[in-house]
Design brief:
With 449 residues, this protein is α/β, with parallel strands linked by helices. Among the domains are: 264 residues, Type I PLP-dependent aspartate aminotransferase-like (Major domain) (Aspartate Aminotransferase, domain 2); 31 residues, no CATH class. 39% of the residues lie in helices and 17% in strands. Strands 4-12-11-10-7-5-6 form a seven-stranded mixed beta sheet, sandwiched between helices. A four-stranded mixed beta sheet has the order 1-2-3-15. Keywords: Aminotransferase, Pyridoxal phosphate, Transferase.
């Protein structure tokens, strides 16, 4: 079966069928929607997909973190099929459908927040959910401003792109919304030279306080929005001691703490959410935003907040035509059931142990491997020209990505210098596939350095 197979390249890439489709793509869709890989998917199972020419690839990107439970789960197909035979769509602002309520109840049960009484709303994408979370925070608090961080990625809609640090995602599309202020994220690998971790965290907290002093007084800040592990920014985890301090600042200043778990959620970290670790340390968020792997590949996202916060939002501010679509809700309920039944949180930690052991050897073996980091099996490998200078080595990473796809492994870059390889493999990958992927990636480093 495809889900148990290993990478196999049968034709030069792109193969003839893929090449024909990719040429059609160039004529039919915008060039700005880039494709980095010379293949066209035909079918997928588990952590593997096969292209139209019969080439088989191990997918370590998973639709960028969407396929935690893998491709084409029969249980999801059946759940969506069952729902489709009843109805495709019922807008919650008009007619109630029970699947929305059942999924909201499940999210209220599993999402870790400061408050125990919770409510959940659904939208269609991570960016849409982030925008709703910001609107909710502003409506509830009556405050106009938000604080985001260097390295952040929150989406490509206008508000989300304004919140996103990398301005190539928003070049030439202003003017942008105001009331968005940026603090420095604790990127410890590139922190102040000579600082230990404790001193570095103090430094980053001081930088945050400067935002209150020089940009927006704290009493005008509705929310601080943070990714527990920065995704596009380079898979940089927020240090737990920094999060504790952030929680204290928010409590002291009446600011809401929003966790953007669009990419980190649904078992990848070794818990359902990284905020589970936060809650265990006494610093959970007030609002949690999730998406990507929530529904196994169907468009869905969620905002979960306390009952008090949601009940403080004015009518008409939130909602939408397709938010909480019936098919997506059915898929999400089954996805969460699979994650819990198969204990994919534990599987994520087992995968992380295998990969981390190998990645740590590479830090010792290769001058160009500067840092390995992450939480659970959401891991990043940062490549540099050399360990002393730490100059980002995006050229090497680009070559590694190209080498890997030619040998049947799909990996993707991240980071402001495009010099980080991100690991977002489906959690259903087999040990044999994992070993094979690690061998391909190591061969790529050896061949391209």
């Amino acid at each position: 079966m495809l889900k148990d197979s290993l990478p196999e390249i049968k034709t030069p890439l792109p193969g003839p069928k893929a090449d024909a489709i990719l040429k059609r793509r160039m004529n039919a869709i915008p060039n700005a929607i880039k494709s980095a890989y010379p293949c066209v998917i035909e079918k997928g199972e588990g952590a593997m997909f096969e292209d139209v020419d019969g080439n088989r690839f191990l997918d370590w990107v998973g639709g960028v973190g969407v396929l935690n439970i893998g491709y084409s789960r029969p249980e999801l197909i059946e759940a969506v099929k069952d729902q489709s035979e009843k109805y495709f769509h019922a807008m919650m602002n008009i007619v109630t459908h029970e699947g929305y309520i059942s999924l909201a109840e499940k999210m209220n049960e599993i999402v870790p927040l400061k408050a125990e009484e919770k409510k959940t709303m659904f939208s269609n994408s991570g960016a849409e959910a982030i925008e709703n979370a910001v609107k909710i925070a502003k409506s509830y608090s009556g405050r106009p401003n938000i604080i985001v961080f260097s390295g952040a990625f929150h989406g490509r809609t206008l508000l989300a792109a304004s919140m996103t640090a990398k301005k190539s995602y928003a070049a030439g599309v202003g003017p942008f919304p105001d009331g968005i202020y940026r603090a420095e994220f604790p990127y410890l690998y590139r922190g102040p030279k000579g600082y230990d971790e404790v001193s570095a965290i103090d430094y980053y907290l001081e930088r945050l306080n400067k935002v209150f002093e020089e940009a927006s007084p704290a009493e005008y800040v509705a929310a601080i929005v943070v990714e527990p592990v920065q995704g596009e920014g380079g898979f940089i985890p927020a240090p737990l001691e920094w999060v504790k301090a952030l929680r204290n600042i928010c409590d002291e200043q009446g600011i809401l703490l929003i966790a953007d778990e669009v990419q980190t959620g649904f078992a990848r970290s070794g818990k359902l959410f990284v905020s589970d670790y936060w809650k265990g340390a006494g610093c959970p968020p007030d609002i949690l935003v999730s998406a990507k792997s929530i529904a196994g590949g169907l468009p869905l996202s969620a905002v979960t907040a306390s009952k008090e916060i949601f009940d403080g939002v004015r009518n008409g501010i939130i909602g939408g035509t397709f938010g909480g679509n019936a098919l997506a809700c059915a898929s999400a309920l089954k996805t969460i059931e699979i994650i819990e039944k198969e204990d994919l949180c534990s599987r994520a930690l087992a995968i992380a142990t295998i990969c981390r052991n190998e990645f740590d050897h590479w830090v010792e073996e290769f001058e160009e491997v500067g840092d390995v980091r992450g939480i659970g099996c959401m891991m990043g490998i940062e490549f540099v020209t050399d360990k002393e200078s730490k100059v980002p080595n995006g050229k090497l990473v680009s070559a590694i990505v190209d080498y890997c796809v030619q040998h049947g492994l799909i990996v993707e870059s991240a980071g402001s210098g495009s010099n980080v390889i991100r690991f977002l493999c489906p959690l259903v990958v087999t040990d044999e596939q994992l070993t094979c992927g690690l061998q391909i990636l190591k061969s790529a480093i050896e061949a391209c350095r």
